[in-house]
Amino acid sequence: MRSVFRKEGEYPKDNSSESGVFEATRWPDLLTEKQLASYLQITSRAAANWRKDGTLPYFRIRRSIRYRRADIDRWLNDKCQRGLPM
Q1: pTM of the model
Q2: CA–CA gap between residue 13 and residue 10 (Å, rounded)
Q3: Are 39 and 76 in contact (CB under 8 A)?
Q4: Helix, strand or coil, per DSSP, at residue 56
Q5: Can you tell me the distance from the alpha carbon of 5 to that of 56, in angstroms, rounded to the nearest whole number?
Q6: CA of 2: how far to CAs of 22, 26, 36, 52, in Å?
Q7: Which residue from 15, 61, 72, 85 puts its CA 20 to 30 A from 22's CA?
C-alpha cells in the first residue's frame, strides 16, 4: 500500500492504517461505523440506516464516514432526556 504521507517521519512509523490501529490511536474520539455499532450494541446495518435517515450525527473524511464519540453521547443524552424513541 502506498503511503498517504508526503514526508518520511512526518507521522509515527507505525502506520498500520489497514487495520485501523493508527487511526484509532491518532483520533481516539472518532468511530467507524463498525465501532459505532459495537459502542451502541446495534448492528452495522442499523447504524447505516440511522445515518442515511439523518438520525445519527456524522461527517465525512473524503470517502470515509466517521462519528464523534462526543456527538453520539450528546445525541443519546438528548434522546434519553426527552424520552423519544431512537
Answers
A1: 0.61
A2: 9
A3: no
A4: coil
A5: 31
A6: 15, 19, 28, 31
A7: 72
